[in-house]
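Sample pair:
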Amino acid sequence: MARFFRWKSYFNHPFYLLLYLEWILLGIAVLATFTPPPHVPHVPPPQPPHDLGMPPPPPRMPPPPRHPSRFIPGILASIASLGVMGLRLPQAHHPLIYQILYTALGFGLSGLAVVFGGRGANFFSALLLVVVIRGCLMFPWRGRVMVALVAYVSFLGMLVGTILKRVGFFRYLSQEMDRPPDMMFFLSGRSQSFIFHLTLNSALLFALVLVFVLLLVGALLSEKQSREDLTHAHRQLRQYALLVENQAALQERNRIAREIHDSVGHYLTAQSIQLENAAVFLAQEPPKAQGYVKEAQRLGKEALKDVRHSVSALRADPLKGKTLEAALRELLQEVKQTTGIRMESKFKVRSAVSKKCSTALYRVVQEALTNVTRHSQATWVGVYVMEVSGMVCLRLHDNGRGFERDLNSTGFGLQGMQDRIQAIGGHFEIKSEVGKGCQVEADIPMN
């Protein structure tokens, strides 16, 4: 079995069905080799009447038609050579001249088999079909049609040559048979009509077979190309699926990181401020310091709660069922109480805002206020949310010390804000100069 598969792997025929069809045609040609040539009956001429007192002339018998002797070993060798050629077809990377020579050799072997077979060689059409099938596998449509035309012309040439030999024999037979002219004309007319119809039918039948072979091989090649394209597309889809899976995992990690940074970072910053205030008033005003410590404890609990939600990849709703305006006002009030920074806000949004838009805006404002508290040394912050042409526009200003946008290492916070806004199709921009504060701008589609 292993030896069979090694031998089968030697073939480079793209369709084993067509290879088996070639073998069937070659088998038919081999069987036709051993079929005796057609024999034309020998008709004796009429004898003249004997009542004239003259001795009858000696009978004139027409010589039998001369059939060239068949060289069967040469026929079988030509057919076998043509069959072996089919095991290794020229590949697409081979030069065109190689494919042309391969096809010409196929026609040459077919013609050589006919030469060895003589006039009775009735297997030429089967050999031509083998050559046409291989030509269809090697050439595009224009080349296939050219190979089919060459095969058809070759078939017609052999057919006409055979018919002319038969007609010549009939004429010789008519001359040897002493018939009246009208009778010979009748015999010749019937024979020529029969030969003409036989030739026409044979030519039409072979033409139809060639057209069928062209369409069959073309359909098989188209189906094979479609399967190859489908396989290639399936392979690409698998690669794209892996890329999408990796990208989705990366986006999910970034999302969780943003959640931890935005929520926990905010609470820890506020807690740090509360502890610093408690340390300042601990010696002089213990009750006031105790209040700061309690606030720090509350903020620590909130941070721990957000950590649990982020680690489990279940993002808690930061709005907690409130509207965007109510959640932002509560956030600004909390930052004002914690840091003492004066807050100014204005909301002009009349339409309903989607949850993803509200969450993104809330997180951006939360991160921006955290940065203001940590770095800006600002005493005033203005937060403005407006509805403009189906977009929710956020503008957040402060009067802090600002920074150089191009020279600043922004860290994860600013990049996280930008990624969050761009992920839902929005536009994000930060404007800042040293000594002139900072401005955060975010425009997000409402739906």
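The two ends are 66 Å apart (CA to CA).
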